[in-house]
UniProtKB/TrEMBL annotation:
UniProt KW keywords: Cell wall biogenesis/degradation, Lyase, Signal
Protein name: Endolytic peptidoglycan transglycosylase RlpA
Residues of the RlpA-like protein double-psi beta-barrel domain: 25-107
Gene: rlpA
Signal peptide span: 1-20
Database matches in InterPro entries: RlpA (IPR034718), RlpA-like_DPBB (IPR009009), RlpA-like_sf (IPR036908), RplA (IPR012997)
Its EC number(s): 4.2.2.-
Top enzyme category: lyase
Length: 112
């Protein structure tokens, strides 16, 4: 029975892909200075994603308070298990989770 409990706990912590171009998991923010993986600077509404092409627009929704914004992917990451996106400090403020540091979010790719 403990194997079933471990499997359930693992599934709660792991990000999930609900449909093509949509992920649910944890978001964090970063105060990265300098250039990102794309060569651009961290902007007000930018983000890091592991696989989406640079320049992709995604809607990030904080599932705790339903706040939502659109950010532009210009960096790679996050590299912490269970995280689906890292957003800029300004994006974290807009989503209402900067003081908490992380939030449970839905990330949806939107048309460019």
């Amino acid at each position: 029975m403990s194997g079933v409990l471990a499997l359930c706990a693992a599934s709660l912590l792991a990000p999930t892909a609900t449909q093509a171009g949509e992920w649910v998991g944890q978001a964090s923010y970063y105060a990265h200075r300098g250039r990102t993986a794309s060569g651009a600077h961290v902007g007000a509404l930018t983000a890091a994603h592991r696989t989406l092409p640079f320049g992709s627009k995604v809607r990030v929704t904080n599932l705790h308070n339903n706040r939502s914004i659109v950010v532009t992917v210009n960096d790679r990451g996050p590299f912490t298990r269970g995280r689906v996106i890292d957003v800029s400090v300004a994006a974290a403020d807009s989503l209402g989770f900067r003081s908490a540091g992380v939030a449970h979010v839905r990330v949806e790719q939107v048309a460019n």
